[in-house]
Design goal:
It contains 17 helices and 13 strands. It has four domains: 118 residues, no CATH class; 174 residues; 67 residues, SH3 type barrels, CATH 2.30.30; 124 residues, Alpha-Beta Plaits, CATH 3.30.70. α4 packs parallel to α6, α8 runs antiparallel to α9 and α9 packs antiparallel against α10. The relative contact order is 0.05. The chain is of the alpha+beta class and 532 residues long. The chain is elongated. It has a five-stranded antiparallel sheet with strand order 9-8-7-6-10. A three-stranded antiparallel sheet has the order 1-2-3. A three-stranded antiparallel sheet has the order 11-13-12. The N and C termini lie far apart (127 Å). GO terms for molecular function: mechanosensitive monoatomic ion channel activity. Belongs to the MscS (TC 1.A.23) family. Pfam families: MS_channel_2nd, MS_channel_3rd. It is a multi-pass membrane protein.
């Protein structure tokens, strides 16, 4: 039994050993695998890898094959063969060239691809012709000279990294720290110049935001510098893949941070501008715009992060579009209110602090938010009106009136002599003309009719002050001046009453008051009217 087990073990081992990888150019998967497999240290046969190069032979083809692998390794681009098609007649219908072709990394390196030529798959003639240009763009000019001066001891490995590569990484880190110190000052200075060039506003808040903005910008420059230098160290593919993934993630995070700080700077400048305008509606727009722009930056940044983990950008955008549509359908009221908010800020039917009438709601506008507008009524109660409804209402904005109109009727007794009526009307006109808060060129004071209980004097006046509190104070001073005039002239105000006239009883006097209508006295009273 033991001998039978040993026999089967030796037999299966020999079968495995006999299974050898051969050159196969029948489909994209096999062609790319042939190229990369025969350039691995344990299976290094460059002449077989060179069979994937179309139009070249011998050492020239081998050199192109080696450079192509070095380009992919240098950029940390690791082929996932589970995603590479094995269809002999595979056709790419998504690229700018429709045909039997497959691009290995369409977003990182679209110029490297394989295509079907004469029934077999090779690296395209366009790729092989431009391989030297691609190589020079990936590897810095000093790469070959650097490798020539490395001693033999420097090639000893520890955790897939050679000793000289450890030293190179250390030098790169130290250089980046030194570069950060100088670049931070330079970029902050340039940001200040750009900010002054765009808007001539400067304060501590803006300077603080610019300082915070300059740091991630410096880090982005350093990330670009590291990506430029890193291929020259010829690190292992797995190490490069890990490092480039980390760098790309950090770059995306830094870009998110940069745009968030840029939003803060823009909002700081706009906030200062809004504070300098008469409209308070602009002040309400600052937090709304800030939240909106922040949301867009975070959303786009998260989509970019998803693509770094192998998710196709098209699938991310399609998923985001479908998700956005689903959210929009599920929250139609919220979307309507958001559109209503945009319409309010575009049309500006009212401003913060305006007294408005919207349907049954009458009050002062206190706040315009994303979803609703807050209006405080005269009794201090608060109404929350959805912006979608408010944008469709007929809004009577009393805050936009040029003046506040005030109309009242003064009723005086029927037995007032015509001379006093005329003097009283002229006196009220003079009071209005000299009043500090009324328009002296547009008012009406006229004897307009006969009421049930008195003679009617129409007073139609316009106050210059637009706020409600000042209007009431102006009414108070106007009324007091009219009352004093009436008292001085002896004019009495009528009120609803019933008078029984008894004139034929002896020793009884009629109810007629004794009016003083001397012209000199009336003129003296008119001259005594002063500004109250």
């Amino acid at each position: 039994m033991k001998k039978i087990l040993i026999f089967f073990l030796v037999f299966s081992t020999s079968l495995i050993a006999q299974k050898k990888v051969e050159v196969d150019l029948s489909n994209p998967n096999s062609a790319i695998y042939t190229h990369l497999y025969f350039l691995q240290p344990e299976s290094y046969e460059p002449e077989k890898a060179a069979t994937t190069i179309y139009g070249f032979e011998g050492e020239e083809a081998e050199d192109i094959a080696i450079k192509l692998k070095q380009i992919l390794d240098g950029k940390g681009l690791k082929v996932d063969f589970s995603k590479v098609p094995s269809d002999t007649m595979f056709s790419d219908t998504t690229g700018y060239k429709i045909g039997n072709r497959y691009v290995l990394f369409p977003y990182q390196m679209p110029e490297v691809y394989v295509e079907r030529i004469g029934g077999k798959w090779y690296y395209s003639p366009e790729t092989t012709k431009s391989v030297n240009e691609i190589y020079d763009s990936v590897f810095p000019w000093y790469t070959e000279k650097l490798h020539q001066i490395i001693p033999e001891i420097g090639h000893k490995k520890f955790l897939k990294i050679e000793l000289w590569q450890y030293l190179g990484l250390l030098i790169l880190i130290v250089f980046c720290f030194i570069l950060f110190y100088f670049l931070h000052k330079i970029i902050f200075y340039l940001l200040r110049k750009i900010q002054f060039w765009i808007v001539h506003i400067s304060n501590d808040k803006i300077n603080s935001s610019l300082k915070k903005l300059s740091r991630p910008l410096v880090l982005l420059v350093l990330m670009w510098f590291i990506q430029l230098v890193l291929p020259s160290l010829f690190l292992d593919l797995d190490v490069n893949t890990f490092l480039f993934l980390g760098i790309n993630i950090m770059t995306t995070v830094f870009w998110i941070y940069v745009f968030l700080k840029l939003v803060q700077v823009v909002m700081s400048i706009y906030s200062d501008y809004a504070e300098g305008t008469d409209s308070k509606l602009d002040d309400q727009l600052v937090p709304i715009l800030n939240n909106f722009l922040t949301g867009i930056v975070v959303f786009v940044g998260l989509l970019k992060l998803l693509t770094l983990f192998g998710i196709e950008p098209g699938a991310v955008i399609a998923g985001a579009s479908i998700g956005g549509l689903a959210v929009a359908l599920a929250s139609q009221d919220t979307v309507k209110n958001l559109i209503g908010t945009v319409m309010i800020f575009l049309d500006k039917p009212f401003h913060i602090g305006d007294w408005i009438e919207a349907g049954t709601v009458v009050g002062t506008v206190e706040k315009v938010g994303f979803r609703s507008t807050r209006v405080r009524a005269a009794d201090t109660s608060v109404y929350q009106i959805p912006n979608s409804s408010l944008s469709e209402m007929v809004v009577n904005n009393k805050g936009l009136r040029a003046f506040r109109r005030y109309t009242t009727n003064l009723g005086i007794r029927y037995d007032t002599p015509p001379e006093l009526i005329e003097a009283f009307v002229n006196g009220v006109r003079k009071i209005i003309e000299i009043h500090p808060n009324t328009r002296d060129e547009a008012f009406n004071v006229e004897f307009t009719g006969f009421g049930d209980s008195g003679l009617l004097i129409l007073v139609n006046v316009y106050f210059k002050a637009l706020d409600w509190t000042t209007e009431q104070s102006s009414k108070h001073s106007l009324h007091m001046s009219i009352l004093k005039l009436a008292a001085d002239l002896g004019v009495e105000f009528a009120f609803p009453s019933t008078t029984v006239m008894i004139e034929q009883f002896p020793e009884k006097k009629g109810p007629m008051p004794n009016y003083a209508i001397e012209e000199k006295r009336i003129q003296q009273i008119m001259n005594n009217i002063t500004k109250k």
